[in-house]
Design a protein that fits this description.
alpha/beta, Rossmann fold, 2 domains, ten-stranded mixed beta sheet, six-stranded parallel beta sheet, 16 helices, 18 strands, 20% strand, binds 6-O-phosphono-alpha-D-glucopyranose, glycosyltransferase
Length: 469
């Protein structure tokens, strides 16, 4: 048992297995963000190693104590693929795909959340701060508070929180709200998400909310104040700037352009292969532009990176089939011997290769139908140290609240999307520079370290107010 003053609880551990059986840090932004504070405070991280049935003893990795939580194959199926990714994920993303409500999935979700809470209770020192991450673990805050009332508990929700009319579909809506309210601070990406949550709490639990404060009744008849507000997440902007300045990455960007036959313009989409990302809408718009003759295959190439994700969930298998049929049709109709309309890559790439792609691309297309934040938009902006390139950004992505100088689109409006793509392709350099400078200012001024600091400072304030009350 360790005695950590700061404990992060997330579905996944911050490490992946490397080919020779050791561990290496996972590429995600959250991991990069928390690494310095975890190291400084000798923190602990509770999470799943990503494969079923593994019993791994706790171990130290680069200054952080890692505490693996075991998931059996049926729990991966019911808690992770089922309830997390086939119930909550589609429901919270505005039912773009129909959520499935299955009682066996819920039972597994409760059991696994209890296991995570027990592990966190084990490793947290007296009076420690525990920071729970994301929708896979919504019950952990209250489960943990029941076991360890001495702890200060934060929760951050990385995905959208839906309007009450949709959230109300959830058969276990009450339990989920009560689970989340176990936290002292409940963080969301957008003001809108925090508002939806407060409304659900008022409507479903009949609690009072005032500004971002929620009065939560205690079993002893007393009450405590929980805070629900927006803390938009960001990226490690400096590391993108550093990579974008490396000569070998700039050379790689030129090589990518050359390998595509040096088209006049390159459009780029980078997403997990997920139905929330609007990849079909993007392909439809691009296919129609080719069909209409407004763009030509020799002049414009769309590079679409779609990294494999949740491949055993039916909705994801179906999406992959649909996208691959679309890409095949568009390329079949429009490719020439020397140029391809769409270069489709169902693969993941290292960060360095992504930065080279960002530098090689004239237009970045973020057409999400719903997205908590969309960090790819911020990565593109941070990487454009040359102040060139155009960001086309869906108003349904959290990033739209901050990135006002992007070309804003509604991905459902295919004609509007087509016009936006043409406008982006034709945008003069001076306007690109003006917009990109404004976008970069925001991303550079508010990076992921600011995000975690603001969240943890707010949590510390709430905890101080509680102990002095
Ligand atoms: C989103 C979620 C994360 C999740 C990630 C990858 O960004 O907010 O919690 O880790 O997708 O999905 P996966 O299911 O592979 O963990």
């Amino acid at each position: 048992m360790s005695e950590a003053p700061l404990v992060v609880v997330a579905n996944r551990l911050p490490v992946d297995r490397d080919p020779d059986g050791g561990w290496r840090q996972s590429p995600g932004g959250l991991v990069t963000a928390l690494e310095p504070v975890m190291r400084r405070t000798r923190g602990a991280w509770v999470g799943w190693a990503g494969k079923p049935g593994l019993d791994i003893e706790p171990f130290d990795f680069e200054g952080t104590h890692l505490h693996p939580v075991r998931l059996d194959a049926d729990e991966v199926e019911n808690y992770y693929e089922g309830f997390s990714n086939d119930t909550i994920w589609p429901l919270y993303h505005d039912v773009i795909s129909a959520p499935r409500y299955r009682r066996v999935w819920w039972d597994a979700y409760v059991a696994v959340n209890e296991r995570f809470a027990a592990a966190a209770a084990d490793v947290a020192a007296e009076g420690a701060t525990v920071w729970v991450q994301d929708y896979q673990l919504q019950l952990v805050p209250q489960l943990l508070r029941d076991k360890r009332p001495d702890l200060t508990i934060g929760y951050f929700h990385h995905i959208p929180f839906p309007a009450y009319g949709l959230f109300a579909q959830l058969p276990w809506r009450r339990q989920v709200l009560e689970g989340l309210l176990g936290a002292d601070v409940i963080g969301f990406q957008r003001v809108q998400d925090a508002g939806n949550f407060a409304r659900a709490v008022r409507r479903q639990l009949r609690l009072d909310t005032k500004a971002s404060g929620i009065t939560v009744p205690l079993p002893d008849g007393g009450e405590r104040l929980a805070l629900a507000r927006a803390f938009p997440i960001s990226i490690d902007a400096d590391s993108y700037i550093e990579m974008a300045r490396r000569p070998e990455i700039q050379a790689r960007a030129a090589e990518i352009r050359a390998s595509l036959g040096n088209p006049k313009k390159i459009l780029l989409g980078v997403d997990r292969l997920d139905y929330t990302k609007g990849i079909r809408h993007r392909l439809k718009a691009f296919g129609e532009l080719l069909e209409d003759g407004r763009v030509k295959t020799e002049d414009v190439t769309l590079v679409q990176v779609a990294s494999p994700s949740r491949e055993r969930v039916e909705a994801y298998m179906q999406l992959r089939d649909e996208i691959e049929v679309m890409v095949g049709r568009i390329n079949g109709d429009h490719d020439t011997m020397h140029h391809t309309a769409i270069r489709y890559l169902h693969q993941s790439f290292p960060r360095e290769e992504m930065v080279a792609l960002y530098l090689a691309s004239d237009v970045m297309l973020v057409t999400a139908l719903r997205d908590g934040m969309n960090l790819v938009a911020k990565e593109y902006v941070a990487s454009r140290v040359d102040n060139r390139g155009v960001l086309v950004l869906s108003e349904f992505a959290g990033a739209a609240d901050e990135l006002g100088s992007a070309i804003r689109i509604n991905p459902h409006d295919i004609d509007g999307l087509k016009d936006a793509v043409v406008r982006a392709i034709e945008m003069p350099g001076a306007e690109q520079g003006r917009r990109m400078r404004a976008l970069r200012k925001r991303v550079l001024e508010h990076d992921v370290e600011d995000w975690s600091r603001e969240f943890l400072d707010t949590l510390a304030d709430v905890s101080r107010a509680r102990t002095s009350a």
